[in-house]
Amino acid sequence: MSLEIWFALLGTAVLISLSPGAGAATAMSAGLTYGVRGAGWTTLGLMTGYAVQILIVSVGLGSLIATSPELFQLIKWVGVAYLVWLGIQFWRQRQSADIESQIAAPGPTRFWQATLVNITNPKGIVFLVALIPQFIDLAHPQQLQLLLISATLLVIDMCVMTGYSGLAASLRHRFADPIAMLWQQRLTGSALIAAAMALSVAAL
After folding, report:
1. Which residues touch 168 (CB under 8 Å, ≥6 apart)?
2. Which regions span the lipid bilayer (predicted)?
3. Taking Cα atoms as reference points, which of 115, 48, 105, 52 lies closest to residue 79?
4. Cβ neighbours of residue 144 under 8 Å, at least 6 residues apart?
5. Does residue 113 lie within any of the structural domains?
6. Contact 126, 7 (CB under 8 A)
7. Contact 74/156 with Cβ under 8 angstroms?
8. Three-state SS for 6?
9. pLDDT in tens, 185-201
10. d(CA 101, CA 38)
């Protein structure tokens, strides 16, 4: 891969990660709720889910999903249902005790929740199917190129998600009282449900 192509990949990766969606909403919610360090579990989960998507595309299953409406629809609606469920959970946290319980949620729980947010987004897989081949030079070994592309996408996304959680964490003092925390939870829930609605109209 030439340096020019890699820079094009780098710019594309930044734009992809900066685009609003369930991942960004999840990262910002984690930053508001747990702070930068506490949000690390969520960021790691998002990266794991993203890595699984990249792996699926790299081994060729992405093309199968892209050409199988039934499989795409199945994964899509699983993702929609999961995001709506998460959004409802945030809305149901009406009492201070619920908020404290959310704050005290174990790291592994946050990790798996964030992982599922990305894994159950089939639109991401189809997008990667369309994106990755654009940066592969068939005249050179594909394995190393796929490794470089995957590493670039993951590192950029990790930086952006960490930035989102850090930005949100800097606003934590504004959400210190229970009422403000309650509204933060509701806004996060609404953002996740909105992401689910956007996902529900995704098509091949």
Report:
1. 27, 28, 29, 30, 31, 32
2. 48-67, 74-91, 111-132, 144-167, 187-203
3. 115
4. none
5. yes
6. no
7. no
8. helix
9. 677 677 767 766 765 66
10. 14
Number of domains in the chain: 1
| Cβ proximity of 75 and 65 under 8 Å | yes
- CA dist 63 and 129 (Å) reads 6
**Residue at 8 is within a domain:** no
Instruction: Provide mean pLDDT across the span 140-153.
Output: 83
Separation between Cα atoms, residue 54 and residue 44, nearest integer Å? 15
Compute the distance between CA of residue 57 and CA of residue 123 in angstroms, rounded to an integer. 12
Question: Using alpha carbons only, what angle is made at residue 160 by residues 154 and 164, rounded to the nearest 5 degrees?
Answer: 140
| Domain of 176, in residue numbers | 21-200
Q: Which residues contact 149 (CB under 8 A, 6 or more apart)?
A: 1, 9, 132, 135, 136
CB 141 within 8 A of CB 75: no
Note whether 176 and 33 are within 8 A (CB): no
Q: How far apart are CA 74 and CA 63, in angstroms?
A: 15
In a domain, 3, yes or no: no
Answer yes or no: are the C-beta atoms of 16 and 149 closer than 8 Å. no
Helix/strand/coil percentages in the chain, nearest 5: 85, 0, 15
Is 7 within the bounds of a domain? no
Query: pLDDT tens-digit profile of 37-84?
Result: 878 888 899 999 999 888 888 777 556 666 777 776 776 677 677 778
